[in-house]
Design brief:
By secondary structure, this protein is mainly β. It contains seven helices and 27 strands. It has two domains: 147 residues, no CATH class; 124 residues, Rieske [2Fe-2S] iron-sulphur domain (Rieske Iron-sulfur Protein). Strands 1-9-10-11-12 form a five-stranded antiparallel sheet. The chain has a five-stranded mixed sheet with strand order 3-14-5-4-13. The chain is globular.
């Protein structure tokens, strides 16, 4: 009986529970194109962003990456077409998706509760996966850039030298509060939700090849490292509760296996430690101190979102359950 119940929890539900792939259009929003850039330290001096304000940070590239606060730049337009990346904000699904730079995208509607974007050539894409499901480029997939969601204060602590969009005096990019009530059109398209988790459970969805795993984040301690095999890779999911941030990296660098674990006495700058080399790591996957100081971990395709959105786009996903699987904690 226990084995039967365990399989019901961990294995994908029948594809027949998935809603029809109908797209419904909603409120039209003009995208934000090429916002002027500056640096975190410069924008911090303006005092316009609270330390706990939610930001999307890209963690590689020039200046050790960059970030922008959601309220100032993407809460209204939902889409940013920019040199630093292509960004989609889906508050109903609980995520910001980041892809390699591209232009010509805008909000179109929702499908299965997930935001749909449209390119000027008529192709429709899932904002969550970046996959084109209709139009002349059907079958193509946008390429993700390494990123994670964090707070302004935490990213400022990690990388004050990084890129930031210029806030000006607040007039050009007025603050728009993040939605607290789901868009009704999004809700109407959801259909039946995979019953393995409550619909709005926050998860980190991880994908390697065709293998997908959802790591539930609700109820985790202040810091955590979750480990699993995904697509043949040993993947470590890092969680920092003070910023409600999760990110996934390969647990290997330069051919050497890492044993990543929480360091209870470390600061939020370097809260994780590799037990094999003694190296301390930041949430951005950078070696802060120790043998591998200055090294960068390989980011794994992942996105922090709500369960209903992840399950809708990945019906064959597994759900991480360390106690049941005997996986490392």
């Amino acid at each position: 009986m226990l084995a039967t119940l365990l399989l019901a929890v961990l294995l994908p539900q029948s594809p027949t529970t998935q809603p029809a792939a109908e797209v419904r259009t909603g409120t039209s929003c003009a995208p934000l194109n090429e916002p002027p850039c500056s640096y975190m330290a410069v924008q911090q001096s303006k005092g316009m962003v609270a330390p706990d304000e939610r930001v999307l940070a890209w963690i590689r590239g020039k200046h050790n990456g960059g970030s922008f606060p959601l309220r100032h730049f993407i809460a209204g337009p939902r889409v940013i077409n920019d040199t630093y990346g292509l960004f989609f904000y889906d508050p109903e699904g609980g995520y910001v998706a980041a892809y390699e730079k591209a232009y010509g995208y805008e909000l179109h509607g929702w499908r299965r509760g997930v935001m749909v974007v449209r390119h000027t050539d008529g192709t429709l894409f899932s904002a969550l996966t970046g996959e084109a499901f209709a139009g002349p480029r059907k079958g193509e997939r946008l390429v993700r850039v390494p990123n994670f969601a964090t707070t302004w204060g935490h990213w400022m602590l990690l990388h004050p030298e990084s890129t930031a969009y210029d806030l000006f005096d607040g007039a050009k990019y007025p603050v728009i509060e993040l939605p607290t009530v789901p868009n009704p059109t999004s809700v109407q398209t959801r259909g039946a939700v995979d019953a393995r988790l409550p619909a709005t459970t926050e998860v980190l969805g991880v994908k390697v090849g065709q293998d997908c795993v959802a790591f539930p984040l609700d109820g985790l301690p202040a810091r955590a490292v979750l480990k699993d095999k995904v697509g043949g890779w040993t993947v470590a999911v890092l969680w920092l509760g003070v910023t409600r941030s999760a990110i996934a990296f390969r647990a290997v660098t330069n051919g050497a296996s890492l044993e990543l674990a929480v360091d209870p006495i470390a600061s939020d700058v370097d809260p994780f430690k590799d037990l094999n080399t003694g190296t301390r790591w930041s949430m951005a996957g950078r070696g802060i101190d120790g043998l591998l100081r200055g090294h960068e971990l390989d980011w794994v395709d992942c996105i922090q979102c709500k369960w209903f959105a992840w399950a809708a786009e990945h019906p064959q996903t597994r759900v991480y359950a360390p106690a049941a699987l005997g996986a490392a904690k």
